[in-house]
């Protein structure tokens, strides 16, 4: 049995996003199993994976259960030292570990008042003093790290620290929170990151809108890159006969730039509809850099 990563809802589970990025950003294989927030409690659904009671949880091939995001990061670093989860430079590695640890333990007001919601963005959000204090601390941490490393990510190259702060960047963007230009540029780097865009596209394609995450603020379009238009269609002749992801026969269609492409199921189609340029397999098919089958 291969390693399995148990995740929550793509649109709302910030800790799940962190763990997923650790695997996808560093090319580490894992099977994905989703826990449905609309069903029983997460603890009930994870009961067989003792002692886990939350997502994300990693169950390794040998049956080891790792139920904490920071522990997952350290275990992956030990098992895949060549992947480069932490920076090679000792000073930057220490910085990255400090950043990830503080994120893991802090910013309670930001989490409470601005839960991650990748389905919605707000034009303006009230900022009480406690939330401003969290934002001020982020300004100190991120500005210091970017000044020390030179960017573009917190410690130069993408590291565990960036995976841990990706949902924070999503909160700053989605709630239109006030930050400096340097911090805004770092937020924008996350919004443009193809891995982050793929995660968000899957969230829009799968799962329900959960009303308890909504806030009564004026809404605005999502502040990230505007996806290429690619509506689902019911009729047409696809240029490909095999799904770019699975290789299975096509059954569902999408049109983009006057061309029709096929996918093996509704989810493969819809995640592509939501952000076509975020998916390397589809881009290779569309742009002719992979054989069409």
TrEMBL record:
<dbReference type="GO" id="GO:0004364">
    <property type="term" value="F:glutathione transferase activity"/>
</dbReference>
<dbReference type="GO" id="GO:0006559">
    <property type="term" value="P:L-phenylalanine catabolic process"/>
</dbReference>
<dbReference type="InterPro" id="IPR004045">
    <property type="entry name" value="Glutathione_S-Trfase_N"/>
</dbReference>
<dbReference type="Pfam" id="PF13409">
    <property type="entry name" value="GST_N_2"/>
</dbReference>
<dbReference type="InterPro" id="IPR036249">
    <property type="entry name" value="Thioredoxin-like_sf"/>
</dbReference>
<feature type="domain" description="GST N-terminal">
    <location>
        <begin position="3"/>
        <end position="84"/>
    </location>
</feature>
<dbReference type="InterPro" id="IPR036282">
    <property type="entry name" value="Glutathione-S-Trfase_C_sf"/>
</dbReference>
<dbReference type="GO" id="GO:0006749">
    <property type="term" value="P:glutathione metabolic process"/>
</dbReference>
<dbReference type="GO" id="GO:0016034">
    <property type="term" value="F:maleylacetoacetate isomerase activity"/>
</dbReference>
<protein>
    <submittedName>
        <fullName>Stringent starvation protein A</fullName>
    </submittedName>
</protein>
